[in-house]
Design brief:
By secondary structure, the protein is mainly beta. The chain contains two helices and twelve strands; from the N terminus they run ααββββββββββββ. The protein has one domain: Lipoprotein localisation LolA/LolB/LppX (outer membrane lipoprotein receptor (LolB), chain A, Clam), CATH 2.50.20.
Length: 214
């Protein structure tokens, strides 16, 4: 569960504050990136998450995939599945054959995966931080820092493709020394979805134990 919550820590604590003056070059790149994702009906991404902590001498890699449509998402990661239809969230743990049901409130989540492309719009300062290459793809680097100093995340670094403005990877820096890197391995725009994509169907999980936390 801790690894899942690590992924659900990307868009930490969005704060409703007056927008600060931002780096115009970074703003242009982020706006182009955001428009790209918001123009899609849905998308699917396969990714690798790497957790590193030099002090604790930890380095772990896990893989997952996610389907996103607006505020809705379906995330599979390390034997767990999180399904959100915008109102209700189901967290299914395969090893226990158990699902927890809760009301979905994005303000109560450390991350909403569907907000990766709008993260910068509320509660963050950001600046252009140079160029890099990822898998041979030239990228612009944008660094974001939360305006809320109590946030356990103090920096998020985005690598945005110069060619098509897609997010190639992002790295999250936490005050406890943990560093989480999320690298996109495969991306599919405008994937088909239906009413079943973002809802949990108990009939497909034989014998599942249901815990309703609402």
């Amino acid at each position: 569960m801790k690894k899942l919550l690590a992924l659900l820590a990307l868009t930490a604590t969005i704060v409703h504050t007056a927008p600060a003056q931002q780096d115009p070059k970074a703003t242009k790149i982020l706006d182009q990136m955001s428009a790209k994702y918001q123009g899609m009906k849905a998308f699917k991404a396969s990714f690798t998450q790497t957790l590193e902590n030099q002090t604790a001498k930890v380095k772990e890699n896990i893989s997952g995939d996610i389907i996103v449509s607006g505020p809705k998402f379906r995330l599979k990661l390390n034997g767990q599945e999180v399904i959100n239809n915008g109102q209700t969230m189901w967290t299914y743990m395969k090893s226990e054959n158990e699902v927890n049901i809760s009301d979905y409130d994005p303000d109560d989540q450390e991350i909403s995966p569907s907000q990766i492309y709008t993260l910068y719009k509320k509660g963050y300062k950001y600046a252009y931080a140079g160029e890099t290459k990822e898998g041979g793809v030239p990228c612009d680097v944008i660094e974001l820092s939360p305006e809320d100093h109590n946030n356990q995340i103090y920096k998020v670094r985005l690598n945005v493709s110069k060619t098509d403005k897609s997010v190639k990877s992002w790295k999250m820096f936490k005050k406890n020394g943990n560093r989480y890197t999320f690298a996109i391995k495969k991306f599919e725009p405008n994937v088909p979805t239906d009413a079943t994509t973002f809802n949990f169907d108990k009939a497909k999980y034989k014998g599942v134990k249901v815990i309703d936390l609402r």
